[in-house]
Amino acid sequence: MTRSEKEAAIEAILFTMGESVELETLAAAIDEDKKTTKEILDGLIEKTEYTDRGVTIIELEGAYQMCTKGDYYETLIKVCKVPKKNTLSESMLETLSIVAYKQPVTRLDIEKIRGVNSDYSVNKLIEYGLIGEVGRMDAPGKPILFGTTEQFLRSFGVSSIEELPQMPKDQVDDFRREAEEELSVTVDI
């Protein structure tokens, strides 16, 4: 296969799958090593970013997916039914933040941090495909461990959780000090 045939094969695979495909799987499909396949993918990504194409290829933690460019959303909704937009409540955003930054995390860990029952938020985030089960904790009862999903990465426009913004250390120290002060306050009844 020539390089252009390999590019075409990768495009065909990504288009047909509709979901992300691991780099190793793509490399095996075109009979190439991972390094060469990554170079081909990088070239395809560059071609789609800098041309007037309606699709692009995105990377999601070592996997690749073909998707529509956001610029064409308004045109697409004229043809398709308008997709239902899931909105996230404050409690869901809090829960999602905890999962994103502390993953893998159990439901009990989430509730300890939030201080309230989080069943509804966790269940809705699972329903929306933003979090999912990533394993079980080796503890009594084998509680479920939750982590973010590829849908989370797509929704927030990042290719891995390492790209999530980090809070400045001095702000973290301020929050910690405030929390410690709140815990030391006693209430007289």
Structure description:
This protein has 189 residues and is an alpha+beta fold. It folds into two domains: 3-78, Orthogonal Bundle (Arc Repressor Mutant, subunit A); 90-184, Orthogonal Bundle (Arc Repressor Mutant, subunit A). The chain is built from nine helices and five strands. The protein has helices at residues 3-17, 23-29, 34-49, 73-79, 90-102, 107-114, 119-127, 150-156, 169-184, and strands at residues 21-22, 55-60, 63-68, 131-136, 144-148. A hairpin with a 7-residue loop joins strand 4 and strand 5 (144-148).
List the helices and strands and how they pair.
Elements: H1 3-17, E1 21-22, H2 23-29, H3 34-49, E2 55-60, E3 63-68, H4 73-79, H5 90-102, H6 107-114, H7 119-127, E4 131-136, E5 144-148, H8 150-156, H9 169-184
Antiparallel strand pairs: 1-3, 2-3, 4-5
- Output mean pLDDT: 87
The portion of residues assigned to helices is: 40-55%
Count of all domains: 2
Supply the number of helical segments: 9
If strands are numbered along the chain, what order do they take across the biggest sheet? Answer: 1-3-2
Give the second-level CATH assignment, the architecture of the largest domain. Answer: Orthogonal Bundle
Amount of beta strand: 5-15%
- Major β-sheet profile: 3 strands, antiparallel
Core attributes:
Arc Repressor Mutant, subunit A, two-stranded antiparallel ribbon, 3-stranded antiparallel sheet, alpha+beta, 189 residues, 9 helices
